[in-house]
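User: Here's a chain of 133 residues. Predict its fold as tokens.
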Amino acid sequence: MAETMVLQIIKPDGEFYRGDVTMVELNTAVGQLGIYPQHIPETVAVAPGILTIHMDAEIRKAALLSGFMQVMPEQVTILAEAAEWPEDIDGKRANEARLRAEKRLSEQAPGLDVARAEAALKRALVRLSLTEK
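Assistant: Prediction complete.
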């Protein structure tokens, strides 16, 4: 068995995941990162995207919608605004959210919070990308 580290993902409503993993891949504010055991300590902002959890030959994916990550040599802790397994995502609802966000952005109504609409679109696209696989 390969060397492992503990991955802990905490959402506002409690622990989402905790287990021994061989690698974690995710989007951050500085780009895509792959974290292996014994990685140098760092703290980074998490960007919306697909979280890929490697457990030897097994791979599990989840939607990770922002937060912060603390990396230590033997543990990675992610404080997530939201995290969802593919089976928990309502594809119809995510598509409706995508359509609403695209409509808001295309109409450019007075007072539109563009950053908020773009963030909603990104979240919907992340969710949809997991439901389509």
